[in-house]
């Protein structure tokens, strides 16, 4: 008897019909993509809501896994992303784009990790564990990026991060999002 086990996980909570943008190397964010209402209680000029969606299915025969498939996507959530027009400029937009690029970098790391998995009785646990590890690393990098760039105000650090993320994305180009 064959059965399929399917699980879809997401870093950020989202509504079923909520619009999302899937990361694409030929598309750069514009301020028009930031459709959420600004939070005037914080000093931030803009906020990028992005995350990794992940789903997998495992085909089993007689309760033994025989194959698995996965989907990993880096998404941008326009309705949860916002900016303050009086504070936002092209430099800030570049900072926000890099947050989204960092999400794609971790989606690539996730795909690379998955590519090294073999079908086994622990495949479901391995996939969930990798998902948790990637999300933790993603959150840590996003926080480090903001801290080291002082939320884009440190131009030298901003440029350093931009070059670093470009190099890292290139190293993992075989695992890029296909759109």
From TrEMBL:
Domain of life: Bacteria
The protein's name: DUF922 domain-containing protein
Organism: Algibacter aquimarinus
